[in-house]
Design a protein that fits this description.
The protein has about 350 residues and is α/β, with parallel strands linked by helices. It has 2 domains: about 160 residues, Medium-chain alcohol dehydrogenases, catalytic domain (Quinone Oxidoreductase, Chain A, domain 1, Alpha-Beta Complex), CATH 3.90.180; about 150 residues, NAD(P)-binding Rossmann-like Domain (Rossmann fold). It is about 25% helix and about 25% strand. The chain has 10 helices and 17 strands. The strands form 4 sheets. Strands 5, 6, 7, 8, 9, 16 and 17 form a 7-stranded mixed β-sheet that branches. The structure holds NADPH dihydro-nicotinamide-adenine-dinucleotide phosphate.
Length: about 350
Amino acid sequence: MTLNRRWVLARRPVGQVGLDDFARIDAEMPVPDLAKGEILVRNRILGFDPAQRGWMDKGAGYMTPMALGEPVRGSACAEVIASQNPAYPVGRFVRGLFGWQDYAVVARAGETAPILVPEGVQPEEALGVLGAASLTAWAGIKTVGGVKSGDCVLVSGAAGAVGSMVVQIARLNGARVIGIAGGTEKCRWLVEDYGAEAAIDYRNEDVAVRLADLAPDGIDLFFDNVGGDILEAAIGHMAFHGRIVLCGSISGYNDEQPSSGPCNLSRMISYRLSMQGFILLDHLDQVPTASAELRGWLEAGKLRYRTDIQHGFDAIPATFLRLFTGENQGKQLLRLDA
Ligand code: NDP
């Protein structure tokens, strides 16, 4: 019998997610008596996203909550090992939400279709620089934010998978960019590698004081991955008619009780600010255009990126927790051992 190793959601986290919220419960490998259209995949690399924390909660979100006792929902790049679907030949790689397990039967009727990884694209790139985080960055800063030449753009979570792409896409569109990240090393990447004009280390500096210094005329466009105090500081330094794009609010994902929120929302009125949240899933029609542009920049050497690759099935839950301590050094991935 071939085992399907699985990390399942053992209980819904209360507050800070921890290792005890997950349990290792293996099962038998799915037998490949596939229905027409289905494929059997073997996960090779997993990708980690802070949003998985929200999917673990019971309340209403933009996706159905993860089921208890089932493999944790998460993205993966996998090899097709059996196929009843000519669009997914055996040996090709696909990506999708295949979960924290070795094997999955996917492309079932009514489910989101897996994305075929183009020939020549490595699995790490498919989940990393050409994956959902970069597409989120592209749709968020271009379509939702409407970035334009001359904008003064502020990005929080700027050294991460989404943020580092936002910084570079904004710069490639002629904006001047200020990034916010935790620690001197990540701030160094922002300026030296990703081309931000300046970086603010929110762990060691007063964000409001630095913003007043770096952007005396105000921020035109703020791309927020973090929420909380950083959002409040940004609202306090927006320019007239400034735009705020809410992509994520990781600072609150592990809060047991929601915080009371920014205390300075009245500035939205006096400064005629706009604030819009978005979800990548609403912009899937733009994926071909975004992917082509990202690939073009990558091939032209205009995009820099980092992937942080951990190893081994046992390390999956601990790897997820790295997102909430800032230990991840770029897009967090994990390569599964054989
Ligand atoms: P990252 O690669 O940026 O990893 C998470 C980072 O968040 C950490 O490295 C850490 O960076 C920072 N962080 C963690 N805790 C805190 C905290 N309490 N306060 C401030 N910063 C913190 O993750 P992603 O790029 O994948 O995701 C970034 C955001 O984008 C998330 O909020 C995510 O949910 C959101 N997202 C939204 C999508 C959408 O469709 N709207 C799609 C995909 C992602 P540091 O070391 O700098 O503190």
